[in-house]
Design a protein that fits this description.
The protein has 1 helix and 10 strands. It has one helix spanning about 5-30; strands at about 35-45, 50, 55-65, 70-75, 80-85, 90, 95-105, 110-125, 125-135, 140. Strand 4 and strand 5 (about 80-85) form a beta hairpin.
């Protein structure tokens, strides 16, 4: 007895094969252990900073993949002051050191504070990976008056 393939059977097998392949892809996207970045240290270089001036932070990191990220920053000092995002960041791959600058908002409280940075990577259409770090304490002071004569 000879077996003949009917067009409907061929189409059904193609659809089932594609559906199975898509399910495998989605499963891979959901469980693959993506490595993005490891923050090893975040050292404050300006332990005393005035409102409206630059806070300098030395960040040592190890970046594993060339993926752009979105960075959000929050100033924590009694209240949490959200600092507007600087947009998309893409630092070089590998073990590196970078010095970041952040202007301290005028509406922040005086006294001890920390800066929290949240780095978000969209690694595929279904998954985002979020890493965050908090700096050492630093002190916010009022901007000294400058006398111009």
């Amino acid at each position: 007895m000879k077996y003949h393939l009917k067009p409907l059977n061929v189409f059904s097998w193609i659809v089932l094969t594609l559906a199975f392949g898509f399910l495998l892809l989605v499963g891979w996207w959901l469980v693959y252990p993506y490595q993005t970045i490891d923050i090893q240290s975040a050292k404050v270089l300006t332990p005393i900073v005035a409102k409206g001036e630059d806070l300098e932070i030395e960040v040592i990191y190890n970046k594993h993949a060339n993926l752009p990220s979105t960075v959000t920053k929050d100033l924590i000092n009694g209240d949490i002051v959200h600092i507007p995002s600087s947009g998309i960041s893409n630092v070089p791959i590998g073990q590196n050191k970078v010095i970041t600058h952040q202007i301290i908002p005028y509406e922040s409280d005086l006294g001890e504070a920390r800066l929290k940075e949240t780095i978000t990577y969209q690694v595929n259409p279904l998954r985002t990976i979020t890493k965050e770090f908090i700096t050492d304490k630093f002190t916010i002071i009022d901007k000294p008056d400058v006398d111009i004569k």
